[in-house]
Amino acid sequence: MASVPRERFVRAADRHVAYDDIALGIAGGQTISQPTIVAIMIQELELRRFDRVLEIGTGSGYQAAILGELAREVVTVERVPELAESARQLLGRLGYDSIRIEQAGGILGRPEDAPFDAIVVAAAAPRAAPDADKPARSRGQTNHPGR
């Protein structure tokens, strides 16, 4: 996590508290999770360097960037167009070529890109795609809040 500049993923007005262990507001009425929650969610995935990961809820792209440091490929899905585009631009500027951001409507998931080795749900969705939380690989891990 130390290699990902969290201050780049928060609003300019919040940069002075970017490393505090608190959630911060971002565009679209969404939040960037506090660092300990991100760390716990990712640690529970038990990622390996060659894993493919699906993230539901891109937000500002912070968690995707951390996943990109740990896994071979990250596909992340965001339903708020403004967030998807700003995360795509920021992650591109930071050189995260192994992360692909998909903008989705009311259904979140990427069954067409399966199988994934791990799935992390960082946000709630109005509806999940069929089998969105069932990675096809035998070692597959799924982690989302409240589960």
From TrEMBL:
EC code = 2.1.1.77
Q: Name one GO biological process term.
A: methylation
Any one GO MF term held by the record is: protein-L-isoaspartate (D-aspartate) O-methyltransferase activity
Cite the InterPro entries for this sequence: PCMT, SAM-dependent_MTases_sf
Lineage of this protein's species?
Answer: Eukaryota, Metazoa, Porifera, Demospongiae, Heteroscleromorpha
Sorted UniProt keywords = Cytoplasm, Methyltransferase, S-adenosyl-L-methionine, Transferase
The record's annotation in SUPFAM superfamilies points to: S-adenosyl-L-methionine-dependent methyltransferases
Q: Where in the cell is it found?
A: Cytoplasm
* One Pfam family recorded for the sequence: PCMT
Name the GO cellular-component terms. Answer: cytoplasm
Which CDD domains does the protein's record reference? AdoMet_MTases
**Which top EC class is named for this enzyme in its record?**
transferase
Per the annotation, which location comes first and is thus the protein's main one?
Answer: cytoplasm
Protein's name in the database: protein-L-isoaspartate(D-aspartate) O-methyltransferase
* Family the UniProt entry places it in: Belongs to the methyltransferase superfamily. L-isoaspartyl/D-aspartyl protein methyltransferase family.
Please list where the region (Disordered) is annotated: 126-147
Q: Which domain of life is it from?
A: Eukaryota
